[in-house]
Protein backbone atom coordinates (compact mmCIF):
# COMPACT_ATOMS: atom_id res chain seq x y z
CA UNK A 1 0.00 0.00 0.00
CA UNK A 2 1.27 3.49 -0.83
CA UNK A 3 2.39 5.90 1.85
CA UNK A 4 -0.22 8.63 1.33
CA UNK A 5 -3.08 6.20 1.39
CA UNK A 6 -1.95 4.93 4.77
CA UNK A 7 -2.45 8.41 6.21
CA UNK A 8 -6.10 8.65 5.15
CA UNK A 9 -8.49 7.66 7.91
CA UNK A 10 -11.21 10.20 7.08
CA UNK A 11 -12.03 12.93 4.56
CA UNK A 12 -10.35 15.44 6.91
CA UNK A 13 -7.00 13.74 6.18
CA UNK A 14 -7.64 14.14 2.47
CA UNK A 15 -8.36 17.83 2.89
CA UNK A 16 -4.86 18.33 4.37
CA UNK A 17 -3.22 17.25 1.09
CA UNK A 18 -2.35 19.65 -1.72
CA UNK A 19 -3.54 18.92 -5.23
CA UNK A 20 -0.24 17.35 -6.25
CA UNK A 21 -0.41 14.95 -3.34
CA UNK A 22 -4.04 14.16 -4.17
CA UNK A 23 -2.98 13.21 -7.69
CA UNK A 24 -0.37 10.89 -6.17
CA UNK A 25 -3.04 9.48 -3.86
CA UNK A 26 -5.24 8.82 -6.89
CA UNK A 27 -2.57 6.56 -8.34
CA UNK A 28 -2.06 4.79 -5.01
CA UNK A 29 -5.80 4.17 -4.79
CA UNK A 30 -5.81 2.70 -8.29
CA UNK A 31 -3.00 0.29 -7.43
CA UNK A 32 -4.75 -0.60 -4.16
CA UNK A 33 -8.04 -1.30 -5.97
CA UNK A 34 -6.39 -3.46 -8.64
CA UNK A 35 -4.52 -5.53 -6.04
CA UNK A 36 -7.32 -5.90 -3.49
CA UNK A 37 -10.12 -6.68 -5.92
CA UNK A 38 -7.94 -9.23 -7.71
CA UNK A 39 -8.56 -11.42 -4.64
CA UNK A 40 -12.15 -10.53 -3.75
CA UNK A 41 -13.60 -9.63 -7.13
CA UNK A 42 -15.83 -6.58 -7.47
CA UNK A 43 -16.70 -3.58 -9.63
CA UNK A 44 -13.18 -2.65 -10.69
CA UNK A 45 -13.80 -0.74 -13.95
CA UNK A 46 -16.45 1.70 -12.66
CA UNK A 47 -14.34 2.52 -9.59
CA UNK A 48 -11.12 3.09 -11.52
CA UNK A 49 -13.11 5.63 -13.51
CA UNK A 50 -14.22 7.74 -10.56
CA UNK A 51 -11.04 8.04 -8.49
CA UNK A 52 -10.45 11.74 -9.18
CA UNK A 53 -14.17 12.52 -9.10
CA UNK A 54 -14.55 10.99 -5.63
CA UNK A 55 -11.38 12.65 -4.33
CA UNK A 56 -12.63 16.02 -5.58
CA UNK A 57 -16.05 15.52 -4.00
CA UNK A 58 -14.53 14.69 -0.63
CA UNK A 59 -11.98 17.48 -0.93
CA UNK A 60 -14.74 20.06 -1.41
CA UNK A 61 -17.74 18.73 0.49
CA UNK A 62 -17.99 17.57 4.09
CA UNK A 63 -19.66 14.24 4.65
CA UNK A 64 -21.55 13.12 6.66
CA UNK A 65 -23.13 16.63 6.95
CA UNK A 66 -23.14 17.05 3.18
CA UNK A 67 -24.84 14.16 1.43
CA UNK A 68 -23.18 12.39 -1.47
CA UNK A 69 -25.29 9.73 -3.19
CA UNK A 70 -24.01 7.35 -5.82
CA UNK A 71 -26.53 5.81 -8.20
CA UNK A 72 -26.46 1.99 -7.93
CA UNK A 73 -23.40 2.73 -5.71
CA UNK A 74 -21.27 0.00 -7.25
CA UNK A 75 -18.78 2.83 -7.88
CA UNK A 76 -18.58 3.93 -4.21
CA UNK A 77 -15.42 1.97 -3.31
CA UNK A 78 -13.20 5.07 -3.19
CA UNK A 79 -15.83 6.78 -1.05
CA UNK A 80 -15.57 3.81 1.32
CA UNK A 81 -11.78 3.97 1.34
CA UNK A 82 -11.78 7.69 2.14
CA UNK A 83 -14.40 7.44 4.87
CA UNK A 84 -12.64 5.20 7.36
CA UNK A 85 -13.03 1.80 5.74
CA UNK A 86 -9.60 1.37 4.11
CA UNK A 87 -8.47 -1.16 6.72
CA UNK A 88 -11.49 -3.35 6.10
CA UNK A 89 -11.49 -2.93 2.36
CA UNK A 90 -9.97 -6.39 1.76
CA UNK A 91 -13.22 -7.84 3.19
CA UNK A 92 -15.43 -6.23 0.54
CA UNK A 93 -18.16 -8.52 -0.76
CA UNK A 94 -16.97 -11.29 1.58
CA UNK A 95 -19.20 -12.88 4.23
CA UNK A 96 -19.24 -10.55 7.24
CA UNK A 97 -17.18 -7.94 5.35
CA UNK A 98 -17.91 -4.59 3.74
CA UNK A 99 -20.91 -4.47 1.46
CA UNK A 100 -20.18 -3.91 -2.23
CA UNK A 101 -22.65 -1.01 -2.30
CA UNK A 102 -23.42 1.94 -0.04
CA UNK A 103 -25.09 0.75 3.11
CA UNK A 104 -26.61 3.06 5.72
CA UNK A 105 -25.75 0.74 8.58
CA UNK A 106 -22.12 0.50 7.52
CA UNK A 107 -21.13 4.15 7.88
CA UNK A 108 -22.57 7.60 8.65
CA UNK A 109 -20.99 8.66 5.38
CA UNK A 110 -23.31 6.31 3.45
CA UNK A 111 -26.33 8.57 3.49
CA UNK A 112 -28.35 6.32 1.20
CA UNK A 113 -28.21 2.60 0.42
CA UNK A 114 -28.56 1.38 -3.14
CA UNK A 115 -27.85 -1.47 -5.51
CA UNK A 116 -30.62 -0.89 -8.02
CA UNK A 117 -30.24 1.84 -10.65
CA UNK A 118 -32.04 5.13 -11.03
CA UNK A 119 -32.65 6.06 -7.40
CA UNK A 120 -29.94 8.67 -6.72
CA UNK A 121 -31.73 11.71 -8.15
CA UNK A 122 -35.07 11.04 -6.42
CA UNK A 123 -33.45 10.27 -3.07
CA UNK A 124 -31.16 13.29 -3.34
CA UNK A 125 -34.14 15.50 -4.10
CA UNK A 126 -35.91 14.08 -1.07
CA UNK A 127 -32.91 14.98 1.06
CA UNK A 128 -32.65 18.46 -0.43
CA UNK A 129 -36.33 19.15 0.21
CA UNK A 130 -36.01 17.80 3.76
CA UNK A 131 -33.08 20.17 4.26
CA UNK A 132 -35.07 23.12 2.90
CA UNK A 133 -38.00 22.31 5.19
CA UNK A 134 -35.75 22.03 8.21
CA UNK A 135 -33.85 25.22 7.34
CA UNK A 136 -30.54 23.36 6.90
CA UNK A 137 -27.57 24.39 4.80
CA UNK A 138 -25.89 21.17 3.79
CA UNK A 139 -25.16 20.30 0.20
CA UNK A 140 -26.73 17.34 -1.55
CA UNK A 141 -24.90 15.80 -4.48
CA UNK A 142 -26.21 12.95 -6.64
CA UNK A 143 -23.63 11.14 -8.78
CA UNK A 144 -25.24 9.09 -11.55
CA UNK A 145 -23.76 7.28 -14.54
CA UNK A 146 -24.88 7.91 -18.12
CA UNK A 147 -26.79 4.62 -18.09
CA UNK A 148 -28.71 5.70 -14.98
CA UNK A 149 -30.33 8.28 -17.26
CA UNK A 150 -31.84 5.52 -19.37
CA UNK A 151 -33.94 4.76 -16.31
CA UNK A 152 -37.38 6.28 -16.03
CA UNK A 153 -37.06 7.00 -12.32
CA UNK A 154 -34.15 9.36 -13.03
CA UNK A 155 -36.37 11.27 -15.44
CA UNK A 156 -39.28 11.35 -13.00
CA UNK A 157 -36.86 13.02 -10.58
CA UNK A 158 -35.53 15.42 -13.21
CA UNK A 159 -39.08 16.45 -13.99
CA UNK A 160 -39.56 17.36 -10.36
CA UNK A 161 -36.26 18.86 -9.17
CA UNK A 162 -36.56 22.51 -10.17
CA UNK A 163 -40.06 22.78 -8.72
CA UNK A 164 -39.04 21.40 -5.35
CA UNK A 165 -35.68 22.87 -4.44
CA UNK A 166 -33.25 25.62 -5.21
CA UNK A 167 -30.11 23.73 -4.31
CA UNK A 168 -29.10 20.35 -5.66
CA UNK A 169 -26.01 19.22 -7.53
CA UNK A 170 -26.36 16.39 -10.02
CA UNK A 171 -23.16 14.90 -11.44
CA UNK A 172 -23.55 12.98 -14.67
CA UNK A 173 -20.61 10.57 -14.78
CA UNK A 174 -20.42 9.83 -18.49
CA UNK A 175 -18.17 6.97 -19.58
CA UNK A 176 -20.42 5.86 -22.47
CA UNK A 177 -20.84 2.47 -20.84
CA UNK A 178 -23.62 0.81 -18.96
CA UNK A 179 -22.45 -2.75 -18.24
CA UNK A 180 -22.44 -3.18 -21.98
CA UNK A 181 -22.30 -0.11 -24.28
CA UNK A 182 -24.97 2.35 -23.19
CA UNK A 183 -27.95 2.33 -25.54
CA UNK A 184 -30.71 4.53 -26.89
CA UNK A 185 -31.39 8.17 -27.63
CA UNK A 186 -30.01 9.42 -24.30
CA UNK A 187 -26.68 7.70 -24.95
CA UNK A 188 -26.56 9.27 -28.41
CA UNK A 189 -27.47 12.68 -26.96
CA UNK A 190 -24.63 12.56 -24.43
CA UNK A 191 -22.27 11.43 -27.15
CA UNK A 192 -23.27 14.39 -29.33
CA UNK A 193 -22.55 16.80 -26.48
CA UNK A 194 -19.12 15.33 -25.89
CA UNK A 195 -18.15 15.32 -29.54
CA UNK A 196 -19.72 18.65 -30.61
CA UNK A 197 -16.94 20.88 -31.95
CA UNK A 198 -18.77 24.09 -31.12
CA UNK A 199 -19.24 22.93 -27.66
CA UNK A 200 -15.70 21.75 -27.19
CA UNK A 201 -14.37 25.15 -28.19
CA UNK A 202 -16.62 27.18 -25.88
CA UNK A 203 -16.26 24.67 -23.20
CA UNK A 204 -12.47 24.73 -23.20
CA UNK A 205 -12.60 28.49 -22.80
CA UNK A 206 -14.99 28.22 -19.87
CA UNK A 207 -12.80 25.51 -18.35
CA UNK A 208 -9.70 27.69 -18.57
CA UNK A 209 -11.64 30.54 -17.01
CA UNK A 210 -12.77 28.47 -14.05
CA UNK A 211 -9.21 27.20 -13.63
CA UNK A 212 -7.74 30.72 -13.76
CA UNK A 213 -10.30 32.71 -11.83
CA UNK A 214 -12.15 30.15 -9.70
CA UNK A 215 -14.95 30.71 -7.17
CA UNK A 216 -17.81 33.16 -7.40
CA UNK A 217 -16.30 35.54 -9.95
CA UNK A 218 -15.89 32.70 -12.41
CA UNK A 219 -19.43 31.61 -11.64
CA UNK A 220 -20.77 34.99 -12.71
CA UNK A 221 -18.64 35.27 -15.81
CA UNK A 222 -19.36 31.75 -16.96
CA UNK A 223 -23.07 32.22 -16.37
CA UNK A 224 -23.04 35.40 -18.44
CA UNK A 225 -21.05 33.69 -21.20
CA UNK A 226 -23.43 30.76 -21.18
CA UNK A 227 -26.47 33.03 -21.28
CA UNK A 228 -24.96 34.72 -24.31
CA UNK A 229 -24.17 31.42 -25.92
CA UNK A 230 -27.64 29.87 -25.48
CA UNK A 231 -28.73 28.48 -28.74
CA UNK A 232 -25.19 27.66 -29.72
CA UNK A 233 -24.91 25.43 -26.72
CA UNK A 234 -27.74 23.31 -28.02
CA UNK A 235 -26.54 20.12 -26.41
CA UNK A 236 -27.27 21.43 -22.92
CA UNK A 237 -30.84 22.34 -23.76
CA UNK A 238 -32.42 19.19 -22.40
CA UNK A 239 -31.24 19.65 -18.82
CA UNK A 240 -31.87 23.39 -18.96
CA UNK A 241 -35.46 22.67 -19.94
CA UNK A 242 -35.76 20.57 -16.82
CA UNK A 243 -34.62 23.64 -14.88
CA UNK A 244 -31.11 22.44 -14.07
CA UNK A 245 -28.29 24.68 -15.19
CA UNK A 246 -25.93 22.55 -17.24
CA UNK A 247 -22.15 22.69 -16.86
CA UNK A 248 -19.67 20.63 -18.79
CA UNK A 249 -18.62 18.41 -20.21
CA UNK A 250 -15.42 18.50 -18.18
CA UNK A 251 -12.55 16.06 -17.88
CA UNK A 252 -13.39 13.82 -14.96
CA UNK A 253 -9.75 12.94 -14.41
CA UNK A 254 -8.50 16.52 -14.05
CA UNK A 255 -8.39 16.89 -10.27
CA UNK A 256 -7.68 20.64 -10.02
CA UNK A 257 -10.46 21.36 -12.49
CA UNK A 258 -12.90 19.12 -10.64
CA UNK A 259 -12.09 20.75 -7.32
CA UNK A 260 -12.45 24.26 -8.74
CA UNK A 261 -15.69 23.31 -10.41
CA UNK A 262 -17.24 21.85 -7.26
CA UNK A 263 -16.18 24.93 -5.30
CA UNK A 264 -17.86 26.99 -7.96
CA UNK A 265 -21.05 24.90 -8.06
CA UNK A 266 -21.33 25.02 -4.29
CA UNK A 267 -22.05 28.72 -4.49
CA UNK A 268 -24.89 28.42 -7.01
CA UNK A 269 -28.42 28.96 -5.76
CA UNK A 270 -30.34 26.78 -8.19
CA UNK A 271 -30.17 23.14 -9.25
CA UNK A 272 -27.21 22.33 -11.47
CA UNK A 273 -26.01 19.39 -13.51
CA UNK A 274 -22.31 18.85 -14.05
CA UNK A 275 -21.40 16.58 -16.93
CA UNK A 276 -18.05 14.86 -16.36
CA UNK A 277 -16.33 12.59 -18.83
CA UNK A 278 -14.53 9.63 -17.33
CA UNK A 279 -12.92 6.49 -18.61
CA UNK A 280 -14.07 3.17 -17.25
CA UNK A 281 -11.08 1.12 -16.10
CA UNK A 282 -8.74 4.13 -16.09
CA UNK A 283 -5.15 3.17 -15.24
CA UNK A 284 -5.46 -0.59 -15.74
CA UNK A 285 -5.14 -1.55 -19.41
CA UNK A 286 -7.02 -4.88 -19.21
CA UNK A 287 -10.00 -3.01 -17.71
CA UNK A 288 -9.84 -0.32 -20.41
CA UNK A 289 -9.71 -2.95 -23.15
CA UNK A 290 -12.37 -5.09 -21.48
CA UNK A 291 -14.84 -2.54 -20.12
CA UNK A 292 -17.66 -5.09 -20.13
CA UNK A 293 -15.73 -7.85 -18.37
CA UNK A 294 -14.27 -5.48 -15.78
CA UNK A 295 -17.55 -3.79 -14.92
CA UNK A 296 -17.92 -6.42 -12.23
CA UNK A 297 -16.04 -9.71 -11.97
CA UNK A 298 -14.62 -12.35 -9.67
CA UNK A 299 -10.93 -12.73 -8.80
CA UNK A 300 -8.40 -12.04 -11.60
CA UNK A 301 -4.66 -11.84 -12.16
CA UNK A 302 -3.61 -8.32 -11.07
CA UNK A 303 -0.89 -8.19 -13.73
CA UNK A 304 -2.75 -9.45 -16.78
CA UNK A 305 -6.40 -9.21 -15.79
CA UNK A 306 -6.82 -12.88 -16.74
CA UNK A 307 -9.60 -14.81 -15.09
CA UNK A 308 -10.06 -18.55 -14.70
CA UNK A 309 -12.41 -19.75 -17.46
CA UNK A 310 -15.88 -20.21 -16.03
CA UNK A 311 -18.03 -23.32 -15.88
CA UNK A 312 -21.25 -23.40 -17.96
CA UNK A 313 -23.94 -21.29 -16.29
CA UNK A 314 -27.72 -21.27 -16.28
CA UNK A 315 -27.53 -17.95 -18.15
CA UNK A 316 -25.61 -19.59 -21.01
CA UNK A 317 -27.97 -22.58 -21.23
CA UNK A 318 -30.92 -20.18 -21.19
CA UNK A 319 -29.51 -18.03 -24.00
CA UNK A 320 -28.38 -20.90 -26.22
CA UNK A 321 -31.69 -22.71 -25.76
CA UNK A 322 -33.58 -19.54 -26.57
CA UNK A 323 -31.53 -19.06 -29.72
CA UNK A 324 -32.38 -22.63 -30.78
CA UNK A 325 -36.08 -22.21 -30.01
CA UNK A 326 -36.08 -18.86 -31.85
CA UNK A 327 -34.58 -20.55 -34.92
CA UNK A 328 -37.66 -22.77 -35.05
CA UNK A 329 -40.21 -20.10 -34.17
CA UNK A 330 -39.99 -16.66 -35.80
CA UNK A 331 -42.35 -15.20 -33.19
CA UNK A 332 -39.79 -15.54 -30.39
CA UNK A 333 -38.08 -12.26 -29.40
CA UNK A 334 -35.64 -11.57 -26.56
CA UNK A 335 -35.63 -8.46 -24.36
CA UNK A 336 -33.03 -7.34 -21.84
CA UNK A 337 -32.93 -4.27 -19.61
CA UNK A 338 -29.22 -3.41 -19.99
CA UNK A 339 -28.02 -6.87 -18.97
CA UNK A 340 -26.98 -8.69 -22.17
CA UNK A 341 -23.93 -10.05 -20.45
CA UNK A 342 -25.40 -11.17 -17.11
CA UNK A 343 -28.51 -12.73 -18.62
CA UNK A 344 -26.53 -14.50 -21.35
CA UNK A 345 -28.44 -12.74 -24.12
CA UNK A 346 -25.24 -11.53 -25.73
CA UNK A 347 -25.02 -15.14 -26.97
CA UNK A 348 -28.49 -14.77 -28.51
CA UNK A 349 -27.78 -11.36 -30.08
CA UNK A 350 -25.48 -12.44 -32.95
CA UNK A 351 -27.77 -15.32 -33.88
CA UNK A 352 -30.97 -13.25 -34.08
CA UNK A 353 -29.90 -9.59 -34.15
CA UNK A 354 -33.30 -8.35 -35.31
CA UNK A 355 -35.11 -10.16 -32.56
CA UNK A 356 -32.84 -8.92 -29.77
CA UNK A 357 -33.78 -5.76 -27.84
CA UNK A 358 -31.75 -3.96 -25.20
CA UNK A 359 -34.04 -1.26 -23.82
CA UNK A 360 -31.61 0.24 -21.29
CA UNK A 361 -32.02 0.11 -17.51
CA UNK A 362 -35.76 0.22 -17.91
CA UNK A 363 -37.44 -2.87 -16.49
CA UNK A 364 -40.94 -1.34 -16.39
CA UNK A 365 -40.66 -0.28 -19.99
CA UNK A 366 -39.22 -3.67 -20.97
CA UNK A 367 -42.32 -5.44 -19.66
CA UNK A 368 -44.87 -3.05 -21.18
CA UNK A 369 -42.91 -3.13 -24.44
CA UNK A 370 -43.09 -6.96 -24.32
CA UNK A 371 -46.83 -6.76 -23.70
CA UNK A 372 -47.21 -4.57 -26.77
CA UNK A 373 -45.32 -7.05 -28.93
CA UNK A 374 -47.33 -9.95 -27.51
CA UNK A 375 -50.59 -8.29 -28.62
CA UNK A 376 -49.24 -8.51 -32.14
CA UNK A 377 -48.55 -12.23 -32.04
CA UNK A 378 -44.93 -12.27 -30.88
CA UNK A 379 -43.64 -14.34 -27.99
CA UNK A 380 -41.46 -11.98 -25.97
CA UNK A 381 -39.00 -13.45 -23.52
CA UNK A 382 -37.96 -10.89 -20.90
CA UNK A 383 -34.63 -11.94 -19.41
CA UNK A 384 -34.50 -9.92 -16.20
CA UNK A 385 -32.83 -10.82 -12.92
CA UNK A 386 -35.31 -11.73 -10.21
CA UNK A 387 -34.30 -8.70 -8.11
CA UNK A 388 -34.66 -6.19 -10.96
CA UNK A 389 -37.99 -7.60 -12.09
CA UNK A 390 -39.33 -6.28 -8.77
CA UNK A 391 -39.30 -2.89 -10.54
CA UNK A 392 -41.88 -4.15 -13.00
CA UNK A 393 -44.43 -5.61 -10.62
CA UNK A 394 -47.25 -3.37 -11.80
CA UNK A 395 -46.68 -3.93 -15.53
CA UNK A 396 -46.58 -7.69 -14.87
CA UNK A 397 -50.00 -7.43 -13.22
CA UNK A 398 -51.59 -4.72 -15.30
CA UNK A 399 -50.07 -5.07 -18.74
CA UNK A 400 -49.28 -8.77 -19.00
CA UNK A 401 -51.32 -10.95 -16.65
CA UNK A 402 -54.64 -9.09 -16.61
CA UNK A 403 -54.47 -9.07 -20.39
CA UNK A 404 -53.51 -12.75 -20.46
CA UNK A 405 -50.60 -12.05 -22.79
CA UNK A 406 -48.02 -14.75 -23.52
CA UNK A 407 -44.98 -12.91 -22.16
CA UNK A 408 -42.29 -15.11 -20.61
CA UNK A 409 -40.14 -13.91 -17.71
CA UNK A 410 -36.82 -15.67 -17.38
CA UNK A 411 -35.44 -14.69 -14.00
CA UNK A 412 -31.77 -15.31 -13.46
CA UNK A 413 -30.25 -14.85 -9.97
CA UNK A 414 -33.28 -16.36 -8.24
CA UNK A 415 -32.46 -17.22 -4.63
CA UNK A 416 -29.38 -15.92 -2.85
CA UNK A 417 -27.15 -13.97 -5.19
CA UNK A 418 -23.97 -14.30 -3.15
CA UNK A 419 -21.41 -11.53 -2.91
CA UNK A 420 -23.64 -8.79 -4.36
CA UNK A 421 -25.56 -8.92 -1.09
CA UNK A 422 -29.15 -8.18 -0.05
CA UNK A 423 -30.00 -5.66 -2.80
CA UNK A 424 -29.41 -8.36 -5.37
CA UNK A 425 -30.89 -11.44 -3.74
CA UNK A 426 -33.72 -12.95 -5.75
CA UNK A 427 -35.74 -13.93 -2.73
CA UNK A 428 -39.05 -12.23 -3.41
CA UNK A 429 -40.07 -13.44 -6.86
CA UNK A 430 -42.28 -16.28 -5.65
CA UNK A 431 -43.92 -13.95 -3.16
CA UNK A 432 -44.66 -11.26 -5.73
CA UNK A 433 -45.57 -13.51 -8.65
CA UNK A 434 -47.65 -16.30 -7.20
CA UNK A 435 -50.43 -13.98 -6.13
CA UNK A 436 -50.97 -12.76 -9.69
CA UNK A 437 -53.77 -14.41 -11.69
CA UNK A 438 -52.94 -16.24 -14.93
CA UNK A 439 -49.19 -16.56 -14.52
CA UNK A 440 -47.56 -20.00 -14.55
CA UNK A 441 -44.45 -20.08 -12.36
CA UNK A 442 -41.75 -22.73 -12.75
CA UNK A 443 -38.42 -23.60 -11.15
CA UNK A 444 -36.15 -26.12 -12.92
CA UNK A 445 -34.08 -28.60 -10.93
CA UNK A 446 -31.28 -28.53 -13.54
CA UNK A 447 -30.30 -27.17 -16.95
CA UNK A 448 -32.11 -29.87 -18.92
CA UNK A 449 -35.33 -29.02 -17.15
CA UNK A 450 -34.71 -25.30 -17.72
CA UNK A 451 -34.76 -25.98 -21.47
CA UNK A 452 -37.97 -28.04 -21.07
CA UNK A 453 -39.59 -25.23 -19.10
CA UNK A 454 -38.67 -22.70 -21.77
CA UNK A 455 -40.34 -24.92 -24.36
CA UNK A 456 -43.36 -25.31 -22.04
CA UNK A 457 -43.56 -21.53 -21.62
CA UNK A 458 -43.47 -20.93 -25.36
CA UNK A 459 -46.30 -23.44 -25.84
CA UNK A 460 -48.52 -21.69 -23.28
CA UNK A 461 -51.25 -19.27 -24.41
CA UNK A 462 -50.66 -16.93 -21.44
CA UNK A 463 -47.96 -15.47 -19.19
CA UNK A 464 -45.29 -17.51 -17.46
CA UNK A 465 -42.12 -17.12 -15.44
CA UNK A 466 -39.12 -19.35 -14.84
CA UNK A 467 -36.75 -18.78 -11.93
CA UNK A 468 -33.21 -20.18 -11.91
CA UNK A 469 -30.10 -19.39 -9.93
CA UNK A 470 -26.87 -17.57 -10.56
CA UNK A 471 -23.89 -19.59 -11.63
CA UNK A 472 -22.92 -23.10 -12.54
CA UNK A 473 -25.39 -25.66 -13.83
CA UNK A 474 -25.87 -29.10 -12.31
CA UNK A 475 -23.91 -30.76 -15.11
CA UNK A 476 -26.58 -33.29 -16.15
CA UNK A 477 -26.97 -34.86 -19.61
CA UNK A 478 -29.18 -32.82 -21.89
CA UNK A 479 -31.82 -33.99 -24.36
CA UNK A 480 -31.31 -33.04 -28.00
CA UNK A 481 -34.68 -31.33 -28.17
CA UNK A 482 -36.49 -29.73 -25.21
CA UNK A 483 -39.87 -31.23 -24.33
CA UNK A 484 -43.00 -29.47 -23.14
CA UNK A 485 -43.94 -30.47 -19.57
CA UNK A 486 -47.49 -31.12 -18.33
CA UNK A 487 -48.48 -27.88 -16.57
CA UNK A 488 -49.01 -28.18 -12.82
CA UNK A 489 -47.58 -31.68 -12.56
CA UNK A 490 -44.77 -32.44 -10.14
CA UNK A 491 -42.13 -35.08 -10.76
CA UNK A 492 -41.79 -37.79 -8.15
CA UNK A 493 -38.14 -38.80 -8.28
CA UNK A 494 -38.40 -41.41 -5.59
CA UNK A 495 -41.40 -42.98 -3.84
CA UNK A 496 -41.77 -43.19 -0.07
CA UNK A 497 -44.51 -43.24 2.53
CA UNK A 498 -43.03 -41.98 5.83
CA UNK A 499 -41.91 -38.52 4.76
CA UNK A 500 -42.41 -36.41 1.61
CA UNK A 501 -39.54 -34.10 0.73
CA UNK A 502 -40.12 -31.28 -1.75
CA UNK A 503 -37.04 -29.62 -3.25
CA UNK A 504 -37.92 -26.53 -5.21
CA UNK A 505 -35.76 -26.02 -8.30
CA UNK A 506 -32.08 -26.29 -7.57
CA UNK A 507 -32.84 -27.23 -3.96
CA UNK A 508 -33.41 -30.77 -5.25
CA UNK A 509 -29.90 -32.04 -4.35
CA UNK A 510 -30.66 -31.17 -0.72
CA UNK A 511 -33.97 -33.01 -0.93
CA UNK A 512 -32.21 -36.08 -2.38
CA UNK A 513 -29.54 -35.95 0.30
CA UNK A 514 -32.09 -35.81 3.10
CA UNK A 515 -34.08 -38.60 1.43
CA UNK A 516 -31.00 -40.82 1.32
CA UNK A 517 -30.18 -40.05 4.95
CA UNK A 518 -33.71 -40.89 6.10
CA UNK A 519 -33.58 -44.14 4.13
CA UNK A 520 -30.36 -45.02 5.94
CA UNK A 521 -32.19 -44.42 9.21
CA UNK A 522 -34.91 -46.85 8.18
CA UNK A 523 -37.60 -44.48 6.88
CA UNK A 524 -39.01 -44.36 3.37
CA UNK A 525 -38.86 -40.85 2.02
CA UNK A 526 -40.54 -39.61 -1.15
CA UNK A 527 -38.34 -37.10 -3.00
CA UNK A 528 -40.44 -34.74 -5.11
CA UNK A 529 -39.52 -32.06 -7.62
CA UNK A 530 -42.53 -29.69 -7.62
CA UNK A 531 -41.51 -28.10 -10.98
CA UNK A 532 -44.50 -25.76 -10.81
CA UNK A 533 -44.87 -23.25 -8.00
CA UNK A 534 -48.06 -22.10 -9.63
CA UNK A 535 -50.20 -24.00 -10.29
CA UNK A 536 -48.79 -26.35 -7.67
CA UNK A 537 -49.62 -30.03 -8.04
CA UNK A 538 -52.52 -30.27 -5.58
CA UNK A 539 -53.32 -33.83 -6.50
CA UNK A 540 -49.76 -34.88 -5.58
CA UNK A 541 -49.91 -32.94 -2.31
CA UNK A 542 -53.22 -34.51 -1.36
CA UNK A 543 -51.90 -37.97 -2.21
CA UNK A 544 -48.90 -37.62 0.06
CA UNK A 545 -50.82 -35.80 2.78
CA UNK A 546 -52.93 -38.92 3.11
CA UNK A 547 -49.87 -41.10 3.46
CA UNK A 548 -46.90 -39.46 5.14
CA UNK A 549 -46.18 -38.38 8.69
CA UNK A 550 -44.34 -35.24 7.64
CA UNK A 551 -43.62 -32.98 4.72
CA UNK A 552 -40.24 -31.28 4.40
CA UNK A 553 -39.78 -28.47 1.90
CA UNK A 554 -36.55 -26.92 0.63
CA UNK A 555 -37.18 -23.50 -0.93
CA UNK A 556 -34.84 -20.52 -1.52
CA UNK A 557 -37.08 -17.51 -1.14
CA UNK A 558 -38.46 -15.33 1.64
CA UNK A 559 -41.78 -16.91 2.38
CA UNK A 560 -40.44 -20.14 3.76
CA UNK A 561 -43.95 -21.31 4.26
CA UNK A 562 -44.67 -21.34 0.53
CA UNK A 563 -45.26 -25.06 0.08
CA UNK A 564 -46.24 -25.22 3.74
CA UNK A 565 -49.08 -22.81 3.05
CA UNK A 566 -50.26 -25.17 0.35
CA UNK A 567 -50.17 -28.29 2.48
CA UNK A 568 -51.13 -26.88 5.89
CA UNK A 569 -54.90 -26.86 5.18
CA UNK A 570 -54.66 -30.45 4.02
CA UNK A 571 -53.11 -31.43 7.30
CA UNK A 572 -55.38 -29.33 9.47
CA UNK A 573 -57.97 -32.00 10.17
CA UNK A 574 -55.56 -34.83 10.62
CA UNK A 575 -53.79 -35.69 13.80
CA UNK A 576 -50.59 -37.39 12.74
CA UNK A 577 -48.81 -35.75 9.81
CA UNK A 578 -46.81 -32.73 10.88
CA UNK A 579 -45.09 -30.11 8.87
CA UNK A 580 -41.37 -29.59 9.21
CA UNK A 581 -40.29 -26.13 8.10
CA UNK A 582 -37.03 -25.96 6.20
C1 LIG B 1 -32.84 -1.52 -11.71
C2 LIG B 1 -31.49 -2.07 -12.09
N1 LIG B 1 -31.34 -2.72 -13.26
C3 LIG B 1 -30.13 -3.21 -13.62
C4 LIG B 1 -29.06 -3.06 -12.81
C5 LIG B 1 -27.72 -3.68 -13.16
N2 LIG B 1 -26.67 -2.66 -13.34
C6 LIG B 1 -25.78 -2.39 -12.37
S1 LIG B 1 -24.71 -1.20 -12.80
C7 LIG B 1 -25.40 -1.06 -14.32
C8 LIG B 1 -24.84 -0.10 -15.33
C9 LIG B 1 -24.62 1.23 -14.73
O1 LIG B 1 -24.07 2.07 -15.70
P1 LIG B 1 -23.79 3.56 -15.33
O2 LIG B 1 -24.91 4.09 -14.50
O3 LIG B 1 -23.48 4.30 -16.58
O4 LIG B 1 -22.51 3.48 -14.39
P2 LIG B 1 -21.04 2.96 -14.74
O5 LIG B 1 -20.97 1.54 -14.27
O6 LIG B 1 -20.82 3.07 -16.21
O7 LIG B 1 -20.15 3.83 -13.95
C10 LIG B 1 -26.48 -1.93 -14.48
C11 LIG B 1 -27.28 -2.07 -15.70
C12 LIG B 1 -29.26 -2.39 -11.58
N3 LIG B 1 -28.28 -2.23 -10.70
N4 LIG B 1 -30.48 -1.90 -11.25
Short synopsis of the structure:
This protein is an alpha/beta fold and 582 residues long. It is built from 25 helices and 17 strands. Residues 46, 71-72, 74-75, 116-117, 145-148, 173, 175, 177-179, 280, 295, 337-339, 361, 363, 388, 391 line the site of thiamine diphosphate (TPP).
Please render the helix and strand layout as text.
Elements: H1 3-6, H2 11-15, H3 19-40, H4 44-49, H5 51-60, E1 67-70, H6 77-85, H7 120-134, E2 140-145, H8 152-164, E3 169-174, H9 184-195, H10 197-212, H11 215-229, H12 237-241, E4 245-251, H13 255-266, E5 272-277, H14 285-289, H15 314-328, E6 332-336, H16 340-343, H17 345-348, E7 356-358, H18 363-375, E8 379-383, H19 386-389, H20 393-401, E9 408-411, H21 429-433, E10 440-442, H22 447-459, E11 464-467, E12 491-494, E13 499-503, H23 508-520, E14 525-529, E15 532-534, H24 538-545, E16 550-554, H25 562-571, E17 578-580
Parallel strand pairs: 1-2, 2-3, 3-5, 4-5, 6-7, 6-8, 8-9, 9-11, 10-11, 13-14, 13-16, 16-17
Antiparallel strand pairs: 10-15, 12-14
Bound molecules: thiamine diphosphate.
Shape descriptor reads elongated
> What is the strand tally?
17
Helix count from the secondary structure assignment: 25
> How would you characterize the largest beta sheet?
7 strands, mixed
Q: Widest sheet: strand order?
A: 7-6-8-9-11-10-15
Spell out which ligands are present. Answer: thiamine diphosphate
Average pLDDT score = 92
The percent range for strand residues is: 5-15%
Low-confidence stretches: 228-234
Distance between the termini: 46 Å
Taking all Cα atoms into account, the compactness measure Rg is 27 Å
